[in-house]
Amino acid sequence: MSYKLVNSSSSATNEYYELVLDSTPFYGEMGGQVGDCGVLCNENETIDVIDTKRENNQSVHIVKQLPKDPAAEFMACVDTDKRDASAANHTATHLLDYALKQVLGDHVEQKGSFVSPDTLRFDFSHFEKVTDEQLREVERMVNDMIRQDIHIDEHRDVPFDEAKKLGAIALFGEKYGDKVRVVRFGPSCEFCGGIHASSTGRIGFFKILSESSVAAGIRRIEATTGKDCEERLYQMEDILKNIKSFFNNAKDLQGVIQKYIDEHDTMKKEIEGFQAQAVERAAQRLVEKAREVNGVKVIAALTPMAPAAAKDLAFKIRASVEGSLLCVIGSHDNQKPQLTIMMSDDLVSDHGLNAGQMVREAAKLIQGGGGGQPHFAQAGGKNADGLSAAIDKVLELANL
CA 206 → CA 5, 184, 203, 251, distances in Å? Predict the structure, then answer.
């Protein structure tokens, strides 16, 4: 076997070479299907082929080292496990294409694909999200064709017009020669130059992992087949066992989880009720303890409280106080400080105060920032120890 160095490329850490052989069993990456990997070997050395590309109608082998003896003969050995996995995924895309047309309609058209030993990605035209029910129907149809173990019906070097008569589907925008290859698996019939499973049964099993949008009118399905499906099934089984262990291995797991959800919702409502009452009582106490400065009731407080509760407290105080009001609340929740300012409208209109500007300035003392409306503003920060100083800063800026 002879070969020649076509090109070399290098990066900061690696150098690669491209080799072309007289003849090769290696499939070069083409049509969305990745190229083969494997080895070139003889009794003196073994060269790893890490990838195979397709250029100028030739398979270009990507290697990290050159043969020591360019005149020696080599045996080209493809990694058949990876090739078989790629072939199974490729065949699955044909079955998926057919099933999508049956479930969604004839408007479905392939817009791209990527196939590797462990990846199956298929892009297609469709105007809306595919529903869970539709995806399940597609899965069932594909797996039914897999169980039928339909053998490949391959037609090589078929005149293009004759291939169309066979029912082969041509991709829009693709250029085809006078003669083409047609691959049929039962009702699925397409133009294709890639590597396929010898029969659909070799796929093993097909499972859709996700469905998403990649562009306007273009959807993407990612799926898996064969051994990877098996591994994912074991993972799901282990996860389910772990979840059941949290609930004393209950037989009716769904019922038990629903019970916990219902109890959680009930407890959440009760806690929210207790919190509302606590905020109401806190508002009353603070209003009673308010001091009056130049005709303005000033309320300043430092308390452990969630941001939402602090906001609720400020509005309850405003609703309870008649006349001029300046309320400053420094709160902290899980070591996260929060500064809240509430004031009456007359302090804004008559005194020119602005809660948003004041809170931004005071928030520097808690290593944070915020903003809001002229009469109400909040700020968060990182330094809870600076809350007292921040409250004093607000009172200083008010200049009452």
Answer: 41, 18, 7, 29
Distances (CA, A) of 267 to 253, 261, 263, 275, 381: 21, 10, 6, 12, 30
Which tens digit of pLDDT belongs to each residue from 217-246? 999 999 999 999 999 999 999 999 999 898
Closest CA to 169 of 159, 182, 178, 185: 182
Nearest of 290, 342, 328, 331 to residue 309 by alpha carbon = 331
Between the alpha carbon of residue 340 and those of residues 77, 221, 353, the distances in Å are 71, 48, 15
Give the side-chain half-sphere CA count within 13 A for 399: 6
Confidence at residue 335, expressed as pLDDT on a 0 to 100 scale = 84
**Residue range 349-372, pLDDT digits in tens:** 989 999 999 999 999 999 999 999
Please give the Cα distance from 9 to 64 (Å, whole number).
10
**Pairwise CA distance, residues 275 & 333, whole Å:** 14
Position 163 scores a pLDDT of: 80
| Strand partners for 327 | 299, 342
Q: Given a cut of 60, is residue 321 above it in pLDDT?
A: yes
Q: Phi and psi (nearest 5°) for 225?
A: -140, 170
CB-CB contact of 52 with 62 (8 Å): yes
3-state secondary structure at position 117? coil
* CA separation for the pair 200, 206 (Å, rounded): 11
Residue 41's φ and ψ, nearest 5 degrees, are: -145, 155
pLDDT band at 16 (very low <50, low <70, confident <90, very high): confident
CA–CA separation, 378 and 313 (whole Å)? 13
Give mean pLDDT, residues 126-143.
97
Using alpha carbons only, give the angle 282, 273, 311 rounded to the nearest 5 degrees: 50
